[in-house]
Amino acid sequence: CFEGTRVAILDMIKSWMENEDNDVPRVFWLNGLAGIGKSTIARTIAEFAQQRGVLGGSFFFMRGDNSLSQSTLVFPTLAHQLAQKDATFKSAIGKALEEEADYGHRTAPVQMEKLIIGPLSTFDRSNRLIVFVLDALYEC
Question: DSSP state, 116?
Fold first, then answer.
């Protein structure tokens, strides 16, 4: 976002991200009409999370682009991005792939469980924020 624009929504999302209250939902769903700037906001938040060192990964869907419109690519991509940032996660995902190397052809729920949730549960993340940004889910 341009400096000084979309301040209220960006502040709301940043506040949500940094809220440590366990009763606060861990998913922030930004929705609205086409063309109002949701993708720009998502990119700005991803940049903010990257600067803070808490971006686990991001995926920006795009209709018409085969590599950016398939739901089966989301979790392998996020797992790869997170593995590049955390050696413990990289080891855990390596173990998961030793069990079955073909998770890229499994359903999205299986991929999420085996490539993200399972490996993340193998190490202590207490007091560690990990943010994933997904944009334009309706494009897949």
Answer: I
Residue matched to tokens 């998961």: 96
Question: Tokens 């949730």 — which residue?
Answer: 117
* Helices then strands, each counted (H, E), the chain: 6, 2
Write down the pTM of the prediction. Answer: 0.82
Contacts of 101 (CB under 8 A, 6+ apart): none
For helices 7-18 and 38-52, give the axis angle rounded to 10 degrees.
40
Q: What is the pLDDT along the chain (140 residues), one digit of tens a residue?
A: 777 778 899 999 999 998 888 888 888 888 888 788 888 999 999 999 999 989 999 988 877 666 666 777 889 999 999 999 888 889 999 998 898 888 888 998 999 999 999 998 876 656 678 899 988 777 76
